[in-house]
Amino acid sequence: MNGTWKRVFRGHVMMPMFNIKKVSQLREKSLLYVTLVLVILNVFAFSMKTSVAQSEAVIYVSPDMNSAAPGESFDIKVNIKHAENVYSWQFCLSWDPTVLEVQDVQEGFFLNQRIYKTIFHAFVDNDAGNLTVVCVLKGEPRSSSARGDGTLATVTFYVKDTGYTALHLYDTMVLDYDILELPHTSEHGIFQYGARIPILRVDLPTVADPLTPGSTLDANITIVDVANLYSWMICLSWDPTVLNATNIQEGPFLSQEGAQTTAFDVTYPEAGTVCVNCTLVDDPIVTAGGNGTLATIIFSVEHYGDTILDLHNTTLLDNNLMEILHLSEDGYFTNVMGDIAVKSIEASIYNVTVGDTVSITVTVENEGNVAENFDVLVWANITRLRTIPVADLASGDQKTLTLDWNTQNIAEGRYVVKAEADILPHETDPEDNTLVMDDVIQATAQREAQFPTTLIIATVAIIVPLAIILFYFTRRKRSPKT
Question: Looking at residue 460, what is its pLDDT?
Fold first, then answer.
């Protein structure tokens, strides 16, 4: 039930869409502003999720995780993949200017393809921590449009100080020859050195035995290494046929064990999804920092199965309504106990003359708790005799499989026969997936008919004396009497 890392991050350095003049005014209207911020971010994130499903091209930072010590430099590439008919492109990149600054920007070979002329410009503002890069083919024909994968630009950063920052792509644009925008998505990068990035994660309890339908599962949404947290929002999605959320409770972290007043809100956008947000409302505001539990989601286990607990559309805000960069870690739940066992394997005959047909019988059983599909492989020594598919074998059921082995072309000798059932992804006892037949099959070559020499000698030994005797009596009978 351990969570799995999800290579996404949330947050960036600046949010120019929020022009808050005075902190005092912000605090007086904190609930209004924060609600507006969270709604806007939520709608934006869901719209981005929809666009991902429809998009083909992707502009992304490579590598996505970067690190270097202060005083050192490092390169990132802004790449594109799955592109078609690209005649021009643009991207903007932002970062924390207290941590990094740009030293150089070089055009990649994606658009010029090493043979075409381009116009390439990079506009760097190290004080603000942003970069705008544009590139267009210069007077080239439509046929010169680029496609496939490649590098748009290489950006060299100088590390000014320890810390972490998003390498945030925004205002990306991909155009064709007719100046029509091509659909695409973007994937950001991260720089980190000497500081920990806050992590949002889904924490599930460790249980000795799989939870049966009707059981209760508590999933904690936790935060690690955060500072100056004023407000948060998360959405969590899962397979509703496996789990059902019955209750959502605020955790003690933001309220600091009840010392601060919070506004806590829960919505259910669709089946198998819950969105939760929480904001400090006291004045003066005392933000939270460190590690703790933001919320607990209580599930009822509906059926046997497995599901990812997908943490998405997450937002952390500080008391200036700036997004806090963070990573997120999904959870994974399963109560599936897979266990396919080969119970027996037998042959119709064990002493075989080459050319005989041997009937082999294999019995398998589903000792797990869900129906399974799998294959059974039957071997004779190192030769695979047959692969037998088994479909939808119910929990607790057995199935008998048979195959006829034609031994026409085998060599004489000893044959060890075994059956192997597939090892399932959630197999709990792989050792009983294989069973070797107790007795070996002994194959003997067919013998050619031998000439009956002994019989002939015996026959001759009998016939010759008889012939002599018969000849003697015949001569005597013909002889004249004296």
Answer: 74
